[in-house]
Design a protein that fits this description.
alpha/beta, Rossmann fold, 4 domains, 9-stranded mixed beta sheet, 6-stranded parallel beta sheet, 24 helices, 40% helix
Length: 667
Amino acid sequence: MSTQDNTIVNINYEQTGLSTGTNALGMREMQAKVYEARDKQYLLVKAPPASGKSRAMMFVALYKMAHQGIRKTIVAVPEKSIGGSFKNTELKRFGFFTDWTVAPYFNLCGGEGMNEGMSGVSESRKVARFKEFLSPATSATTLVCTHATLRYAFKELPDEDFNDTLVGIDEFHHTSADADSGLGDVVRRLIANTNAHILAMTGSYFRGDGLPVLRAEDEMKFHPVTYNYYQQLNGYKYLKNLQIGYKFYQGRYTDALPEVIDSTKKTIIHIPSVNARAATGLGKYGEVAAIIDTLGKVVSIDYNTTVITVQTPDGRLLKVADLVEDTPNERNAIQTYLRNIRHRDDMDIIIALGTAKEGFDWRWCERCLTIGVRGSLTEVVQIIGRCTRDCEGKESAEFINLIAQPEASQDHVSVAVNDFLKAITASLLMEQVMAPAWNFKTAKEADEEGIKDKRTLKVEGLKPLSSAKTRMIVAEQLDDLKANILQNDLIVKAMATDSYAETINQVLIPKVIRERYPSLTDEEVEEVRQRVLLDTVTKSCAEVVVKPDGNRFLKLSNRFINLDKLSINIIDSINPFQRAYEILSKKIDKTVLKIIQDTIAEQKYDMGIEEAILLCKGPLKEYMAESGGQLPDINNPDVKVQRLAQAYLIIKNKAIRRKQGLEWEEK
């Protein structure tokens, strides 16, 4: 039984304090950015966990009710526990013109000090109270409910009852463009049939099922406000470093626990569901027991709070919370305890299954250990957000995904391979989301405007952004687009097989862009493609090297890129995911790598004519020149050579068909 340690993301931050400090109105940097857009009818706010989105909604809602004719505000959250973020909040004493208040009667989420009696109330009674709130005879102006209550109420109310309201939807990624999405239907009807304002907020605009959150025509109506992870973490006061990676294991994950649990760090351990492939067969309680045995020996249990005290082999006492236990009284007791902890020493380890993710606040958490593959990128983002809150005494944060290596003996090895690659691509996306960005200018822009800071680069051959749509995509949606790219099955397979840069950069990435933005022209697709590629390549370079002559170079694998002499041709020659392949080939043994590549090779991979032409124009000619004119063999063990052989056969067969008079328009 062994594990291997593989860190993909290792980012140091400058601790500027900008994301936690406040202005004269009591607003953080992100909140002020949202407030600047308060006149917009539809706002889409994308900002990380702990950035202050709930208070940003309060600021905007209070302004709209005071100055824009909005009579009532409805705030919808995915689950009752998150409703606590919208409790009564003093804003006036920090400089704002009024406070945020919610009458307990219209807080339909319950919670401590917030109408505890509602916690067991049926949805039908909550909907009745929702209807009462919207009545003109009701003077209350704010209501907090769950997404479910909003959906149920919307089915029973005429659309016009929502006129002159602000509907705030927290964790907006719970909606989708799918016709069967109840929350998506609420959004579409509000836009089409009412004058309601909408404030949508999310820490992750990605969905694990690949569906868009909004339909393209609806998304264009929203004014986006993006505050990225790097801005948030770089602006902290205490946190200096973030690491994201994974550890591989073979066998049962419980056998790997001694090598991956560090009991000296405040940790949340997320175990897999009982039906997941990572489950051990011990059952969820058996797995919790195995984790506690790894930590040490149970010495006491506080039956009022259910906190477990464990003594480690070196004599330390740990306080452990078991959130896997689903007996109502015990679950409520530990959740109440966790909501009220005030000191670092009040808790050490939390073990969870399906909880302690979205909206969960334990600011002392330094490490998240997640066992098994998560099907949703959103879930990964939410889990990482648990350990990235700023806190005095916490200088580093770490997310580790413990995942099983594929084994040839597995009955479903292809599933294991897909899960394995999915976990790695999630880490790659987090690198892209959380690393500092570079700014890119065309040669003309650089010559006319000059280069004013060290993170702005001139790029020869870079096309200017020709439309408002491409400017918006590049400014606000590159990370979302990268999520689409890294969820694309063909790109995931290409990452694990050392594919040609031409295939990824000029065929697969443009294909994803066209699928996400079908209205873009070919010229606009190319403008976006260039910037996606530039942003991806520069963020995946681990370090900047400054030569004695002052030139700066990015180190990418074993290659150096001159930052001061960048061109699109250079970037196009680089596989943006080459580092992922090299990590795989270096950190796992050859047997496992061969299992992965053989499994991918066995899966059907249709090559389009566009890719075939591209490979025959460049890489095939180079291969034949190096091999003395020999054609590539489809049975060659090198996957890249197989692809060249496939491309040659496609072009050859097309040529034969054309000679026979069959139509072929490709040139």
